[in-house]
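ingest -> validate -> predict -> emit
validate: passed (alphabet ok, no gaps, 132 aa)
predict: started
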Amino acid sequence: MPGAVEEFLRYDSPICMATTRFTTEPVDVGGVEIPQDELVLLSLGAANRDPARFQDPDRLILDRRDAGHLAFGGGIHRCLGALLGKLETEIALTALLTRFPGTTLACQERDLRWRNTMMLRGLEALPLTLRR
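emit:
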């Protein structure tokens, strides 16, 4: 389950954009120079789908070996609650799937409604049919 949770986070991160940053010096990104003191937005979701970093990045692979996603940020900007959040998710999913191994989505995937925000990504609700 720990590897699956890591892959869920990489594949569809709950945090879409890092908080606002400013360049401290000119930076070249893909052949485009961003001047010093320029506002930049970093797409963590795009970084987690970078083919230069992840093999077959657009596939959900629950036993993926190339770890190192940015779902909780990185370095000094890494979320302090990352370990707790991952542990809670592992415990909850393990308990749910152990008790109800036949769980299925209770609607069509296209009917799921996503929160409409720039920073956070998540479903408004996840309707499930629980089966033992």
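The two ends are 19 Å apart (CA to CA).
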